[in-house]
Write a structure and sequence with these properties.
Elements: E1 2-6, E2 19-31, E3 34-37, E4 54-56, E5 62-64, E6 69-71, H1 75-87, E7 91-92, E8 100-101, E9 104-115, E10 121-129, H2 136-139, H3 144-167, H4 179-183, H5 185-189, E11 192-193, H6 207-221, H7 237-285, H8 290-383, H9 395-407, H10 417-434, H11 442-448, H12 453-464, H13 487-531
Antiparallel strand pairs: 1-10, 1-11, 2-3, 2-6, 2-9, 4-5, 7-8, 9-10
């Protein structure tokens, strides 16, 4: 027998799946009308095994205080638990059975499952192995085994009485006559499904027991304890709209029926008025029609009262219909407004992407111009002879050479392939640690600073580890206005523009999410008013 109820559970799977579940197995026996845990740690031979108490918990369900339950994850775990519990079960040898069970065994499998951050579903599966009833004159048991047989037959009789009470739909069901029936109260009369399997012996010596078992199974088969139900709460806007539409259709049909009843009442009222008029004319001719006139007046009053009630009912239905139509219109307007906001946000994102692309193009153009200027400066420095200026005419050309000298970065000595590879690995480690998005641009950086690898590494360490400037950007504190000095301004402006656009997008997204939460709260209020 399995019973289902909603219970928030905290445990579940440890993976990233939104669906979580947990399975626990407990095993007990009812021996001499006392409950014992079959999975409890073994006790010494001199000590007496303690029994458990069966009580009703705070949630109204039957529970066993102190029952050991073990988590299982596969069929092998369940079989291992079942084997360990069967080894601790009370058995004895009789004339009827060499390994006769002297107790009722109950295996409880509790499954808790559901979605993360949502109320969990809990189901209990009870597998009960009932000890067979026996006749003392056949089993020939004495002493302690005779006492065990008496308790077994008493609990089975109590189970039969419960089944009989359920079959008769009795107001009082004697669940407390036995620990077995009290423990299975939720499974026999609660929100559960129950199945019973009856074992019979085909031998002629067990004819009476087989007959009684089949009669008991026939009686149990007629019992209807109801259907297990599952409550599902839906918060989907589309389902709410569909529900409102169906209610609107029902109200429209009720309105049509009310109009038909109204028209029929009007026709009946007209007939009554005609009858009253004819009665008034006949009363002038005969005083014997006074009683008929009183009856007609009474009928007219009743019809008028019915007409007023129908009119008031129709007005109430019309008001409800108008309210539902207004709420429907609000929901549609909210949906259209949200769609427009989504389109607006999409267009803004597209514009920001276009601006970022333009800024990236401008940045590449500035880089190319700066690289060309550096190349021209280095070429001019190499081509022009290094002579000391002798007159004022040569002083004008000294300024460009001075700017070239300032913008030219130091070149290191040629390095071997092993040193270059070592520097490359250190650069990759710095980028992976501080700027993972630029790890794919290592080849470009190494090609750009070819022959100046040591300079590149020192600048990157200065930037990421000491908070210095980025590699490839010369300082502007000396006041020079060469091509390399304009590079950090372009990059800084690009980074600032990208950061500002990202902040605006995040702020717009947060405002949109706040509006969505407010509308969801409004819809839930509307739904609660409709349900109320």
């Amino acid at each position: 027998a399995a019973d289902e109820n909603r219970d928030p559970a905290e445990n579940g799977n440890a993976d990233d799946s939104p669906f979580v579940f947990n399975i626990e197995v407990g095993m007990l026996e009812i021996y001499n009308d006392e409950v014992y845990d079959l999975l409890a740690p073994p006790v010494a031979a001199s000590e007496r095994k303690s029994h458990l108490d069966v009580r009703r918990g705070k949630d109204g369900l039957i529970e066993i205080q102190g029952l050991v339950k073990e988590n299982v994850s596969c069929l092998e775990d369940v079989m291992a638990v079942l084997t360990r519990g069967n080894d601790n079960r009370a058995t004895a040898s009789t004339n009827m059975n060499e390994h006769s069970s002297r107790s009722h065994m109950i295996l409880n499998v509790k499954v808790t499952c559901g979605m993360k951050d949502q109320p969990m579903q809990t189901g209990n599966l009870y597998l009960i192995d009932l000890a067979g009833s026996e006749r003392v004159r056949k089993s020939e048991v004495v002493g302690e085994q005779l006492k065990e047989a008496g308790h077994i037959n008493k609990s089975l009789a109590a189970l039969g009485n419960v089944m009989e009470a359920l079959d008769r739909k009795a107001k009082h069901v004697p669940y407390r006559d036995s620990k077995l029936t009290y423990l299975l109260q939720d499974s026999l009369g609660g929100n559960s499904r129950t199945m019973m399997v009856v074992n019979v012996n085909p031998c002629s010596d067990s004819y009476d027991e087989t007959t009684y078992a089949l009669q008991f199974a026939t009686r149990v088969r007629r019992i209807n304890i109801g259907t297990a139900k599952k409550n599902v709460t839906s918060k989907n806007l589309e389902e709410t709209v569909n529900k409102l539409s169906s209610e609107l259709k029902l109200l429209a049909q009720a309105k049509a029926r009310s109009e038909q009843q109204m028209s029929s009442l009007k026709r009946e009222n007209k007939r009554v008025q005609d009858r009253l008029k004819s009665a008034a004319e006949s009363r002038a001719r005969s005083h014997d029609d006074t009683r008929t006139m009183a009856i007609l007046k009474k009928s007219h009053a009743e019809v008028t009262e019915r007409l007023k009630k129908e009119k008031a009912l129709r007005e109430g239905k019309t008001g409800e219909l108008e309210n539902l139509q207004q709420e429907m219109q609000k929901v549609r307007q909210d949906t259209a407004r949200m769609a427009r906001q989504v389109d607006k946000l999409s267009s803004q994102v597209t514009e920001k992407d276009d601006k970022i692309s333009d800024l990236q193009k401008q940045l590449r153009t500035a880089k190319e111009k700066a690289s060309a200027a550096n190349h021209r400066a280095r070429t001019a420095q190499i081509v022009n002879p290094r002579t000391t200026p002798s007159s004022g005419a040569t002083s004008s050309s000294s300024a460009p050479r001075e700017r070239v000298a300032r913008s030219t970065k130091p070149r290191g000595t040629p390095k071997s392939d092993d040193e270059i590879a070592k520097i490359r690995s250190e650069v990759e480690e710095l980028l992976e640690k501080h700027d993972p998005n630029k790890v794919g641009k290592v080849d470009t950086l190494m090609e750009k600073f070819k022959g100046r690898e040591t300079y590149l590494l020192s600048k990157m360490k200065q930037r990421y580890e000491s908070g210095g400037a980025r590699p490839g950007v010369s300082s502007t504190s000396n006041g020079t206005a060469n091509g390399s000095a304009s590079r950090p301004v372009t990059r800084a402006s690009s980074a600032t523009a990208g950061t500002t656009a990202q902040q605006r997008s995040e702020a717009a997204l947060q405002k949109h999410m706040a509006r969505m939460k407010q509308r969801a709260s409004a819809r839930s209020n509307v739904q609660s008013r409709l349900n109320g």
